[in-house]
Amino acid sequence: MILDWSLIAALTTMLAWGMNFAFVKYVLDQIGVGAFMFLRFLVLPLLGLALLVVVFRSRIRMSWPRRADLPRFVLCALVGHVLHISAVMYGMSLSTAFSSSLVLTCQPLFTLAILAWLGAERLRVQQVLGTLVAFAGIALFLADKFAAGFSRAGLGDLTLLLAGAAFSTYTVLSRPLADRYGPLIVLSYTLLFSMPVMLPLTLPFLGDVHFSALGPWVWAGLFWALVVCSFVGWLSWTWVNSKRGIARSAPFMYLMPPVAGLMAWFTLGEVFTPLKIIGAVVTMAGVAWAQFGGGRPPPREAAQPDSA
Question: Is residue 307 part of a domain?
Fold first, then answer.
C-alpha cells in the first residue's frame, strides 16, 4: 500500500491547527493581541529566511520571485498575513476557542465559491454536497448559541468570518505561486513582505508585556502557535493545496472544530452539549463524503486564476 503523504500532511495540519485555538486563546489572555502579533511578524519571517539560507545556501538569490510575480506575492502577504491574521487574532480575543474554530470552518465555503466563480478547478457534485453536509454539522454546533439570540454571535464571530474569507482568498491566490516556486519560497517571502506593515503597527503594544513574568506554559503556547502552527503548518497546507488541489483540500477544514472542542474542554474547561457532539459527527461525515466520494481527481485541473 502506497502512503498518501498529502493526505497525512492534511490530517496532521488540521490536528495541529485544531489544538492551536486553545493555545492561542490562552496566550492572548496573557500578553494581548498586539504583542502576540508583533512576535509573530518578527519571528516567522526570520524563520523563513533562515530556512531559505539553509536550503539554497549560496544560491539564495535564485529564490527571489520573478518581477512578474511580485505583485501577487505582495497581495498574498496583505491578504493572507496582514488581513487574515489580524482578523483571526482580534476575533479570537473577543470570542472563545471553540466558537473561533467553528466560525473559521466557513473557509471551505468561501474557497469553493471563489473557485466556482473563477472556474479555476472542476468541482464534483460529491464535493459540494459533502461540504454542505459538513456545514449542516457546524450549524448544529452553533444552534444553542444562536437560539439565545443572534447578538451573542458578537463582533468576534463576525471578525472571524472576515478572516475566513481572507484565508480562502489567500489560498486561491497562492496556489499558482506554490506550483511554480514551492511552499517554502511562497511562505517565506509573503511573510517578509508583511513584516514592514505589521511591525510598526504592533510595536507599541510590546511595552505592556512583562516577559520576565511569563510562565513556561505561555512560552510553550507561543512556540506551538508561532513555530508549529504558523510556520510549519502554513508550509504544510500550501504543499497540500498544491498536491491535492484546493477543492479537495478545503473540506479538511471541518476537522478543526472537533479537535478544538476537545482541547478547549480539556485545557480551558469549556462545556459542550449532546447537540454539539452530534454536530461533530455530522461534520466529519461531510468531510469524508467530500474528500473520498468524488473518486480520483480529473487528469488535469482547469486553468489557474493567473492564466489570463
Answer: no
